[in-house]
Amino acid sequence: MAASSRPPSHPSTAVRRVRAGTRMSRQLTSMTNNFWTVIPAGGSGTRLWPVSRAGTPKFLLSLVQERRSLLQQTVDRLRFVCQPRHMMVVCGPPHAVSVTRQLPELLESQIVVEPSPRGTGPAIALAAALIERQDPDAIMGSFAADHAVRDLSEFVNAVQGAIIAACQDQLVTIGIQPTRPETGYGYIEWNDDPAFTTDFGAIHRVSSFVEKPDIATATAYVESGRYLWNASMFIWKVSVFMEELRTYLPEVAAGVSRIADAWGTPEQEEVTLDVWPQLPDISIDNGLMERSQRVAVVPAEMGWSDIGDWHGLGTLLKHDEAGNCVRGDTISSGCVNSVVWSDTKRVISLIGLNNIVVVDTPDALLVADRSQAQLVRATVSRLKELNRTNLC
Amino acid sequence: MAASSRPPSHPSTAVRRVRAGTRMSRQLTSMTNNFWTVIPAGGSGTRLWPVSRAGTPKFLLSLVQERRSLLQQTVDRLRFVCQPRHMMVVCGPPHAVSVTRQLPELLESQIVVEPSPRGTGPAIALAAALIERQDPDAIMGSFAADHAVRDLSEFVNAVQGAIIAACQDQLVTIGIQPTRPETGYGYIEWNDDPAFTTDFGAIHRVSSFVEKPDIATATAYVESGRYLWNASMFIWKVSVFMEELRTYLPEVAAGVSRIADAWGTPEQEEVTLDVWPQLPDISIDNGLMERSQRVAVVPAEMGWSDIGDWHGLGTLLKHDEAGNCVRGDTISSGCVNSVVWSDTKRVISLIGLNNIVVVDTPDALLVADRSQAQLVRATVSRLKELNRTNLC
After folding, report:
1. Residue B90 contacts by C-beta under 8 Å, 6 or more apart in sequence?
2. DSSP 8-state assignment for residue B354
3. Nearest beta carbon to residue A346 from set B363, B371, B373
4. B68 DSSP 8-state letter
5. I need a surface site. Which of A66, B71, B284, B312 has the fewest CB within 10 A?
6. Residue A4: its pLDDT value, please?
7. What is the set of domains in chain A, with CATH numbers?
8. For chain A, what is the mean pLDDT?
9. What average pLDDT does range B323-352 have in this prediction?
């Protein structure tokens, strides 16, 4: 579980893969000189309980790659589109120490600790305001701290396309081509006609953002070809973003501007503690993207996953020929399509399991049918009801 | 798990149930004055791993009734057919202390510690030789230490019938009317024509003992009506048993007689250590019952189980309306027919499980399809191969 604090040395396999990509261009290198990124690192990922807890949320865990947490992998990925000093992480007080330890390459100024969770809206807005004060011409991207991307080259291509679209004063989101009728994701409806095209692909207008659908709706979405998965990847000019923010979330725009003005001065803490609690708790999706009239989407295929539950994580892990993903000291026979994750030294005997998830931690054990893995949330809710928060 | 050393006080519910039985008779009371019982307490019950281990085998565990081990429950049961001073337990050195602590009501002379395991043949034979020296006219019964009986009244009736048959100089076994085509039990084929009848039911000759059959054979057995389950319950005159032993296992007969002659004298240890290792390792079934020409069977229905695996134990435990047997700190949703047993204080979340066994101990975890629960044996074998005997 322990994430190593050392970033992988370049050139890594991933770098070479990207360098081999045909669409990498010198143009981008100059373009990305003013590209900044922010990683809002919040959320607890209760559907990955009992490994994910309030104190060690999903983004701090090494789930997909050994010794690199999802947050670290996100930073690793962004190094291919963004200069190291142009990255920013926004996290809460309970995770500030862990984030700092996991990312020793970031300066103190690159880790913003928000006093309390207010959703991605205020978090991204504060980052934008802080970036704007350093570089008013900045283009900025926001990327979730706890998602996985298999194809780095396609990720870089998509960001490049989005940067170009952002230069057209759009709020740009990267939408993932759906590969199945997933009910755990939000969807983005796009117009068929491209708004314009770039070297990196077509850029489309967005008709609407839609919340997690039921299975019938999700199936219709996928069949229609007009919907993409919302991967919480956003790219825009900081100036355009602040303008839209002033229109749709004026209190947030004013609040983060006040905080940004005080940032790095003796008044920082006082102003922050005065202003922040007054801000609405709202996601950037609900607060801005669903309301703005200048939202565009770059469709992409990059093997993206939000690792929403143990089933989803299982699809990302190495598995044997029977489809089992196993981490731990196990002796198994006759198991298929099962996911086993152990954080203990106990021996685990698995016999005849089909589509079962077993997650073993020192103080809690989960055994679930894989197709119902998302219901683990209810267990966490129940533990909270029972005041057993030490287990949550 | 800890078994209490205090036997239940009389009159218990069970006693009252037996007293209410219509077939209890004064005749039996006088008959059972010379009835002795032996409990061979061996075997490790590897199919109940990871709770059952070499050091704490099945018979020492409180599996069916809280705070009374299977051994203690066996003794409790035998108190209804046998005087307390006429009971004997034969166990091995690793379990002598636990057996003694669990059965404080037994005298030192009632607990026989065999130097090494030699199967039920020598164990029962030694007990018989020791009993014969105290009461040459004794009738003796042998009962496994780790089986369960639901219906005590029917058990008492069956033993009474078997005692009467034993008085006819038969080696008598109690055969259980099969309720399903069980492949985990040995079977006894009986002749339809009763050899004779008693107040307690018909006594039949035995045609053959058969080993654990495959499912097709087991189904045919049950349909034929000519087969009973072998429950390892044997009743005979000690004199008749020793006579048959001299015929079919003469070296065992001679060996246990030499040991019994030295028992309680200064030579006991020397003679035992000299003779015992020379005895063959053989079960009483293979060595005697399958070969003797004077074997009879008393058919009985008493809710008997050998608790052969977690599935079998599950059928004996209290279950909820969805068929789940749960012991431990659990939060579950949508589970059916599952068995959960915890010896830890960990919280266990169970979601959507169907026919799954979960057994949680401090150093080992078992998750198995219930229909394949008997394969846990292979896990124990594998652990031994890997020299991880601390887990076996």
Report:
1. B38, B39, B40, B41, B42, B112, B113, B114, B123, B124, B126, B127
2. B
3. B363
4. B
5. A66
6. 54
7. 13-305 (3.90.550.10), 310-391 (no CATH)
8. 90
9. 96
The pLDDT score that the predictor gives to residue A6 is: 52
Distance from CA of A382 to the nearest CA of B (A): 8
Instruction: Count other C-beta atoms under 10 Å from residue B22's C-beta.
Output: 7
Amino acid at B214: D
**Helix ranges restricted to H, chain B:** 13-20, 26-31, 70-78, 96-102, 120-134, 152-166, 215-224, 238-248, 250-262, 268-275, 284, 310-316, 376-385
Q: Which of A300, A114, A107, A109 is nearest to A190 (CA)?
A: A300
Strands A295-300, A325-327: pairing kind: unpaired
Q: Which amino acid is at A243?
A: E
* B219 min Cα distance to partner chain A (Å): 24
For residue range B107-166, what is the model confidence (pLDDT) as tens digits? 999 999 999 999 999 999 999 999 999 999 999 999 999 999 999 999 999 999 999 999
CA distance A333 to A167: 56
pLDDT of the residue at A14: 36
Which residue of A339, A347, A391 is the best one to mutate when testing the B interface, meaning the one whose CB has the most B CBs within 10 A? A347
Provide the whole-model pTM.
Answer: 0.83
* C-alpha span between B388 and B392 (Å, rounded): 7
Mutate to test the interface with A, among B49, B52, B349 (most CBs of A within 10 A): B349
**Cβ atoms of A124 and A142 closer than 8 Å:** yes
- Would you say the C-alpha torsion B146, B148, B149, B152 has a positive or negative sign? positive
Q: Tokens for A11?
A: 């050139």
Whole-number Å distance between alpha carbons of B253 and B280: 11
Q: At B6, is the pLDDT very low, low, confident or very high (cuts 50, 70, 90)? A: low
Using the Cβ of B50 and the Cβ atoms of chain A, whether some distance falls under 8 Å is answered with: yes
Q: Report the distance separating Cα A318 and Cα A211, nearest Å.
A: 31
| Residue in A375, B127, A66, B327 with CA at minimum distance from that of residue B338 | B327
The SS3 assignment for B298 reads strand
Cross-chain residue pair A375–B334, CB shorter than 8 Å = yes
Closest by Cα among A37, A29, A304, A295 to A154: A304
Which candidate, B377, B92, B2, places its Cα nearest to that of B212? Answer: B377
Residue B299: Cβ within 10 Å count? 18
Distance of CA A14 to the CA centre of its chain: 19
Does A356 lie at the interface with B, CB-CB under 8 angstroms?
A: yes
pLDDT at B24: 43
What would the pLDDT profile of A79-119 be if each residue is shown by its tens digit? Answer: 999 999 999 999 999 999 999 999 999 999 999 999 999 99
Give the β-pairing of A201-210 and A187-198.
Answer: antiparallel
Residue A5 confidence (pLDDT)? 56
Amino acid at B210: V
Alpha-carbon distance of A338 to B22, in angstroms, equals: 55
Beta strands in chain A (DSSP E): 35-41, 87-91, 111-113, 139-143, 148-149, 171-176, 187-198, 201-210, 227-237, 295-300, 304-305, 325-327, 330-333, 339-342, 347-351, 356-360, 364-369
Confidence band for A230, pLDDT divided at 50, 70 and 90: very high
Instruction: Give residue for tokens 């069980």.
Output: B182
Q: Which residues contact B284 (CB under 8 A, 6 or more apart)?
A: B119, B120, B121, B124, B125, B142, B234
Cβ-Cβ contacts under 8 Å, A52 against chain B? none
> Is residue A198 pLDDT above 80, yes or no?
no
Longest CA–CA span in chain A (Å) reads 64
Q: Measured between alpha carbons, how far is residue B22 from residues A208, A389, B16, B18, B163 in Å?
A: 80, 57, 12, 9, 18
Pairing of β A171-176 and β A295-300: parallel
Q: Is the separation of the CB atoms in A132 and A74 below 8 Å?
A: no
Distance CA A118, CA A283 (A): 8
The answer to whether B77 touches B149, Cβ cutoff 8 Å, is: yes
